[in-house]
Amino acid sequence: AEIHTEAFAEMDSLTSITLNEGIEWINEKVFYGSTNIKSLTIPASMRIMAYNAFVGMDLDTLTVDPLNIDFVSDSNGIIYTADMMSLTHYHENIDIMHFVVPSTVNYVYADFGENQYIEEITFSENVQSISSPGLSYCPNLTMIHFLSYDRPAVALSNYAPFPLDKPTLFIFTPSGYVEYYKDSIYFTYYIDNLYI
User: Fold this and answer.
1) Digit-coded pLDDT (tens) for 112-142
2) Cis bond upstream, residue 43 (ω within 30)
3) Strands 170-172, 194-195: parallel, antiparallel or unpaired by DSSP?
4) Full-prediction pTM beyond 0.90?
5) 81 - beta bridge partners?
6) Residue 168 CB: number of other CB atoms within 10 A?
7) CA–CA dist 3, 6 (Å, integer)
């Protein structure tokens, strides 16, 4: 079973919802603007979730059923693939000022939405790819740290993965690698923000 894009969007009357076992696919912005839903559990049957499935919500908790074989959630409500190689969802109410992407993560697909809390993020040395819009709409983000000597691919589709035209955004690379990062098509929009 599948839940379609914006199926429960802008429904202020919804205060709780149960995603029943048997739901395997959840599309984009399913609950966008339904800000009275505070808690959501992903069933064991869930196999596919759009990167922005939970954007525009006011969640306090987001968890994955421990029997789910494709996804896991940590104590903060951050969702990863079961092998911990992909960060898939990071909801807007996660209250972490400096988030360090776990070293097991290779791919960051999460849409951080308009998370007000995150000010700093560190991408571990194993991160190979970051999708957009990623952190584009996080208003208080001021520092991004890349630990990898092999610059990650950064998706440049309809949205940039980080805030644009923000002179107070500092992007740090490993010592001696700032020119290597600047020389990448992926960091074209951030040349003035790159530092060692």
Assistant:
1) 989 999 999 999 999 999 987 889 999 999 9
2) no
3) parallel
4) yes
5) 71
6) 10
7) 9
